[in-house]
Structures are given as C-alpha cells and as structure tokens.
Amino acid sequence: MNIFSRFIDIINANMNAMLDKAEDPEKMLRMMIQEMEDTLIELKSSCASSMAEGAKLEKAVKEAEEASQRWEKRAMLAISKGKEDLAREALAEKLQMKKEAEQSAKLLEENRATVAESRKDIASLEEKLSESKARFRIIKEKQERARNEKKARESIRKDTEARFEEMEKRINRMNAENDLNRGFEEMEKSDEIERELAELKKKAGI
C-alpha cells in the first residue's frame, strides 16, 4: 500500500467505531497514532522532494527563457551582418529553447499543484493526529483513574478484612479471659462454701 492510499484510509477511518469494537482502545489508538506519525513523515518527505523538484523546474524555465532571448539576439546580429543562414540556425535554437521553457513551465505548474495538494494532505493528517493524541490522553487518564479506583477499592477491602480479623481476635481473647475468670470465680465460690460448711459443722458440734 503506497503512502497516499494509507493517507486516504486513515482520513476516512471511522475512529469511534473502531475504538468501540476494540478490546483495548488505548492500545489500538496508540497503534493508530504511530501509523499516522509514520505516514506524516512520508508525506512531508514526499512534499519536500516535490518542492525540490519545483525549484529545479523554476531554474530550468528561467535558463531556457534566457537562452531563447540570447539566440534571438544572435539571430538579429546575424541578420545585421547579412548572414541569413546563421540567423536561421539561431532562430531554430531560439524556438527549441522556447519549447523547452514552455514544457518546463507546464511541469512546474503541475508540480505546484502537487505541492499544494500535499500541504493540504499534511494539514488534514496533522489535524487528525492532534485529535487522536488528545483522545488518547483522555482514554489513558480514564483508564488510569479506573485502575487507581480499583486499587483503592482493593485496599479498602483488605483494610476492612484486616480490621474485622483483628476484632475477631480481640473478641476471642475476651471470651477466653471471661471463661478463665468464671473458672476461678467458681473455684473461689466452692472454697467459700466449704469454709462456711465447716463453720456450720463446728457450731453444730459435728
């Protein structure tokens, strides 16, 4: 696929539809931006080559026109000297240079149209590239927020679980302490009952 076919495909691409169907919009948009940047480099390179060719054509037109004028002056000089054959040869050269100037001028006109079209294509692609980069930043920021929110939720969940686990441990410790206290209280109560019983037996003379 040549550069201009790729350019047309990019410009005509329905970016919204492509991103909606993409499993990873950020990755797809990054690839599209890379393709645009590569195509833009080639477009600018092609335009620069056309401009360089245009400069050569301008020089060729100027040189051919100047040569045509010189041969016309030589023809006039030959006529003034009565040398018609030499004048005819000079006029033939003049016509040849004039023809070359016209051909180069036509090519120059086509070249300028090509350069103008290339600049238009470059401007269109730069605009679409700028829009794509802005959209990429939005998507990236959105996905980054989503990742951060997920991390925050996970952190809160883990923190909540840790607090519940600690609370459960404290409750278990409290229950164990209560059971231990009840055991000692029961032993202390039993000892007191035995002492009271012994006192009653003593009073009863048993």
Automatic annotation (TrEMBL):
A matching Pfam family: PspA_IM30
GO BP field: phage shock
Keywords: Coiled coil
Keyword Coiled coil: yes
Coiled coil regions, renumbered to chain: 54-177
PANTHER family in the cross-refs: MEMBRANE-ASSOCIATED PROTEIN VIPP1, CHLOROPLASTIC (PTHR31088), PHAGE SHOCK PROTEIN A (PTHR31088:SF6)
Family: Belongs to the PspA/Vipp/IM30 family.
Name recorded for this polypeptide: PspA/IM30 family protein
Organism the protein comes from: Candidatus Ornithospirochaeta stercoripullorum
